[in-house]
Design brief:
Layout: H1 2-70, H2 90-101, E1 107-109, E2 112-114, H3 119-131, E3 136-138, E4 145-148, H4 155-251
Antiparallel strand pairs: 1-2, 3-4
Helix pairs in contact: 1-4, 2-4
């Protein structure tokens, strides 16, 4: 009778071990799925963070280029070629043209009235300045200055041209500083916006991860409990199996061997 009870307990414990082993496999499969989902969420939001930073960098550079281009200091429609040596920028040329034309009115220069220089004349002077320079042309005596440049400008026009260039270059320095300030302020504002956007993405990520991480924790706790139960069941099964073996051995016929 005792042997039958041991045999029944052995079968019961074996079923429990099998059941707990299956449970462990199921938990492991669930854990793997949850881990993959967590990784997917983290990769998705990591990609969003990276894209946000790249977009912010693009906005900053676009704004800066736009500011400098609108001022004639950028690469767009820029007459200055850094590979071409000396020259002036579009900003300086535009400023000079405005100063010299003066709305078509003459202006004072060194106590003398100088007629306004129209667009055609300005282009001629600019071409001469950029190629051969507004060099003096002399009379036959080689001493007396007759006029200047290839298109024969008078002294007042040349002085006005050079003074306009000096004034334009000063304004260019001021414009560069202002553009840099505006670009810097915009970059700072974008940086503040990006930090706020990152915080929002982090909040969204945490909200998306919360149920997954909670389920992962539950699985880990279930697995720990399962491991403890399985270890106990295996230990008890081993003990019962040993008792069964002893019972079988003791119940075997001895055939007069005492």
């Amino acid at each position: 009778m005792a042997f039958l009870m041991l045999l029944h307990e052995k079968m019961r414990l074996q079923r429990k071990v099998n059941k707990l082993t299956l449970r462990q496999l199921q938990l492991s499969s669930r854990k793997e799925r949850i881990t993959k989902n967590i990784s997917k969420v983290q990769k998705m939001y990591s990609s969003k963070m990276t894209q946000l930073e790249k977009q912010a960098s693009l906005w900053t550079s676009q704004f800066k280029n736009g500011i400098f281009n609108s001022a004639g200091l950028g690469m767009q429609n820029q007459m200055f070629n850094p590979m071409g040596g000396s020259g002036i920028t579009t900003f300086v040329a535009n400023q000079m043209a405005g100063f010299l034309y003066n709305g078509g009115k003459s202006f004072e220069l060194g106590g003398k009235s100088v007629s306004s220089i129209d667009g055609t004349k300005f282009q001629e002077m600019m071409t001469d300045y950029m190629t051969t320079g507004l060099k003096a042309n002399y009379e036959d005596d080689k001493k007396t200055v007759k006029d200047y440049g290839n298109n024969h400008y008078n002294e007042q026009q040349v002085q006005a041209f050079m003074q306009a260039m000096q004034m334009a270059q000063q304004r260019q320095s001021q414009a560069q500083f202002m553009c840099q300030q505006m670009a810097s302020q915009h970059e700072q504002n974008v940086s503040i916006w990006v930090e706020a956007a990152k915080a929002q993405l982090e909040e969204e990520q945490n909200a998306a991860l919360l149920p997954l991480e909670s389920e992962e924790t539950d699985i880990e706790l279930d697995n720990e409990s399962c491991e403890a139960q399985l270890a106990d069941a295996k230990a008890r099964l081993e003990s019962v199996q040993q008792a069964c073996s002893e019972g079988i051995k003791n119940s075997a016929p001895r055939f007069g061997l005492g």
